[in-house]
Amino acid sequence: MRKSLAPSQVAKRKQLGPDSDDEDWEPDITSERKRNCQENYISPFRKPLTQLSNRPVCTDGIDHEAFIRKILSKPFKVPIPNYTALHDPFEEGALVLYEPPAISAHELIKADKEKLPVHVVVDPVLCKVLRPHQREGVKFLWECVTGRRIENSYGCIMADEMGLGKTLQCITLIWTLLRQSPDCKPEIDKVIVVSPSSLVRNWYNEVGKWLGARVQPVAIDGGSKEEIDSKLVNFISQHGLRVPTPILIISYETFRLHAEVIHRGRVGLVICDEGHRLKNSDNQTYQALNAMNAPRRVLISGTPIQNDLLEYFSLVHFVNAGILGTAQEFKKRFELPILKGRDAEAMKIEQVVCCNLTPLQKELYKLFLKQAKPVESLQTGKISVSSLSSITSLKKLCNHPALIYEKCLAGEEGFDGALDLFPHNYSTKAVEPQLSGKMLVLDYILAITRTTTSDKVVLVSNYTQTLDLFEKLCRIRRYLYVRLDGTMSIKKRAKIVERFNNPSSPEFIFMLSSKAGGCGLNLIGANRLVMFDPDWNPANDEQAMARVWRDGQKKTCYIYRLLSTGTIEEKILQRQAHKKALSSCVVDEEQDVERHFSLGELRELFLLNEKTLSDTHDRFRCRRCVNGRQVRPPPDDSDCTCDLSNWHHCADKRGLKDPVLQGSWDAAVSFVFHQRSHEDQRGVA
C-alpha cells in the first residue's frame, strides 16, 4: 500500500514513530536508487555546512607553532640596518667562510655600524655545485690566503689528486675574494692564474662555465711581444673595487718572458697550476714568480713531492716564505730525521776528493790559458763566445786529455802545438788512465772496491765522452757494466735498473749520464757512487747522489766527488757552496755564467793554482788546521748539509775512515773533505 505524502499525514507518522501501522509499506526502490546516485556524484570539493553558533573557530595549535618557527628560523630576512653581506648566511646549504664575532647590545650601541664585520658567504651559484670535500677545500683555501690559518702567512698548496675538482675550488676562491670580505668590500682586485701552456684555454673555459658573464677573464699564451706587453700593461694598471678584467690567465713560459711588466704592479692573488714545476727554486720561472708583489699565493699540484723533500721545501717556501726556515735548517730539522726514520741502517759518507793534475794535463792547461787568453777577453767587461768555449774545454781537459785531443789535431785556439805534448804514438783508442789524475784515482777506487768488498759502483758524468772512457776502462779491467744515457728508451731503462739492483746480478758498474738520469732512478743495488765532474748547479749533484742513498738502502753509502786540484773545477765547487749559502739562483749551463758571476769571479775561473793541495781549503783560512793537518774536529752538530769548512779536512790518508779511499790516496789525491750523514752516528765518518 502506498503511503500518502500529504504534509498532514507525514507529520502524523513522525509523531507515531517508526512502529506505526505501515508494515505493508515498501519504499519506492526507483526513487531510492536515484537519490543514492545523486549522492555518489556530489563534488568532493563541496564542504558540508556547519552549524551557526556564537562559539569562535580555533586554529590547530601544532600547525600554528610550526608556521611561527619557520618564520623565526630566517632572521636574515628581517631588515637589518647597514647589513651589507652579499649572500644569506642562513640559507639552507649556505657555505659560510667567515662569521662575525657576537657582540652585546651595549657594544653594538657604541660601535660604528658601518665598520662592523659581516658574513662572508660563497655565492649560491657555486655553492650548490660544490661537493662536501670541495666545500672543505674552499674553506681551507680562504682561511689560508686571508691569514686566518697561520698568522702572517698567506699561501697554501692545494694537493688533491686528479679529478677531485681543484680548478672549481680555486675559481670559487677567486670569485669570493673578488666580491666580498668581512670589511664589506672586495678582498682583492686582481688575480693571476699561471698554468702550463696546454691548460690556459681550459682555465678560460672553466671560468666561463662556472661564472658565466659575471666576470671577464683575459687569457694570454703566445703572440708578439708588443701585443702581450700591451695586454699585461692594461691588466696590471687596473685599480679599484670593480676592475673590468680582474682575472689574467697566462702560461709559465709567457710569464717568465714578460715578468718585468707584471712586476710593475701589485696583484691580490697568484695561483700556479701544476705547481710542481716550481720544485727547483733555482730556475728562472721560480725566480720570476717569486719576485711578484703578490702576498697571497696558491699552488695546485697533485704530486707536490716527486723525488725528494727539498723539492717540497721549494714549493712551501714559494707560498709561505720562511715558514720552514732556510733550506739548510729544513734539511737538519726535517729531511734528515725523516730519511733516518725511514731506514736507520743506511748512512752516507760523502767525500770531496781533490786530485792532482798529471804533468800532461798541467802543460796542456797552461798552454791553453796562454794561447786562448780568456782573461784578456774579459777586459771589455763582457764574456765572449770564445770564453764560454774555454770553460767547456778546461772542464773536459780536467777529465782526461783524450776529450780535447780532436781540438789539438785541428789546432784550434788554445791548442796550437799541443800535439807535441802528448806521448809518442798516442791513440784515443786506449783509455790510458795514467794521463789523468782523476781517472787514475778512479782506477784505484774501482780495483780496490772490486777485490776487497761486494759493493757495486755507480759512475756519473756530465759528458757522454767521459762515459765512453769509462766503458774502455771497464773492458780493459774486465768489469761487467751497464750504461744509461739519453739514447735509451724508458722501457729498456727500467729493465736494466731492475737487473742491476738484483744482488745476484754480475754487473759491477752502472754508468749514468747526469743529464739523462738524474731524477727518479733507484739504484740501491749499489752503495758507492763516483761523481767524476762537478755540475754548476748543486741541485743536480744532489740528485745524482740520491740515486744510491735512498729508501730501501741497507748498506753504508760512499760518495766520491772528484775534482782536479787548483783548477776551474774547484771554482765550480766554491760557487756551489756560495750559492747554496745564499739560497739564490745558480748556473745551469755555461751560457748562464755571465748573468751570475762578477767580472772578478770570471777572471778567477781561468787561473791555475799549481802549488796548492786544495784551493778551496786555502780560501777558508781554516783555524781548525795547522800546517795542513786538522787539529780540531768539526762542531758536534755538523753533517753533510754543512758548509765544507765544517767537514773533516785531510791532507794525508791517516785521517780517512774509508779503506778504499785510503788505498787510493797515493794515486793522485792531494786533499779530502769528508763528512757523515746523520748527527748521531758519530765515529763512522
In short:
This protein is α/β, with parallel strands linked by helices and 685 residues long.
- CATH fourth-tier homologous superfamily of the largest domain: P-loop containing nucleotide triphosphate hydrolases
Helix content: 25-40%
Number of strands: 18
Could you tell me the strand content as a percent range? Answer: 5-15%
Radius of gyration, in Å, reads: 41 Å
The neighbouring-strand order within the major sheet is 11-12-10-13-14-9-18-17
Mean pLDDT: 82
Low-confidence stretches: 20-27, 75-83, 580-589, 679-685
CATH architecture tag of the largest domain: 3-Layer(aba) Sandwich
Shape, please?
A: elongated
Largest sheet: 8 strands, mixed
Give me the CATH fold name of the largest domain. Rossmann fold
In CATH's first tier, which class of the largest domain applies? Alpha Beta
Question: Which structural class fits the helix and strand makeup?
Answer: alpha/beta
Q: What's the N-to-C terminus distance?
A: 133 Å
GO cellular component, one term: nucleus
GO molecular function: ATP binding; DNA translocase activity; helicase activity; hydrolase activity
Protein name: DNA repair and recombination protein RAD54-like
Domain Helicase ATP-binding: 147-322
